[in-house]
Each structure stands twice: as structure tokens, then as C-alpha cells.
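Quick sanity check, Nitroreductase domain-containing protein:
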Amino acid sequence: MDEKNKKNQTIELIKNRKTIRTYDPKPLTQDEIDAIVQGAMRAPTAGNMMFYSIIQVTDQKLKDRLVVTCDNQPHIAKAPLVLLFLADMQRWWDYF
């Protein structure tokens, strides 16, 4: 790898990313939620169309149901916030 790529912070973040599936039980602040959602909305999409909707789930009963819906992943129920990303292909058809 050349010297330029060694110092590229984006590449380093990608290489060093990890999944953490244990959560602090305290609820997120609205500012924290807004920052996470805004970050997700800045991810690149074809034509900047954002062919998805983001649904915020904090209700424990709904999170418990998502555990089963999402291939029995128990960590979902323990998260203080679950963001569901739903593909919305109607936006594609409406635009083009």
C-alpha cells in the first residue's frame, strides 16, 4: 500500500470497523438519534434518491417481534433504538 492510502482516515475506519452487539441500557438522547439518522441519510445512493425509508423503533414489544422477524437475533431486543431501513422502490418508479 502506498503512503497516501496509509494515512487515509476513511480507509482506516473501514478496515478497523467492528460490530458491537451489547448496548448501554440508557435511552439515547434526541440529539444522538438525530445524528445517527442524519449520518445514515448522507450515505450515497443512486442519483441521491434515497430509495428507502427509515423507521425508528423503541417500543419493547415491537423490538421483541423483530427478533423473530430478523432470523432470531436476540441482540435486537436489547438495543435502546432499532432503525429499520425499508426499500421503497415506488420512489424509483415515480421519479423515472
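Posting the structure with no commentary besides this: The mean pLDDT is 87.
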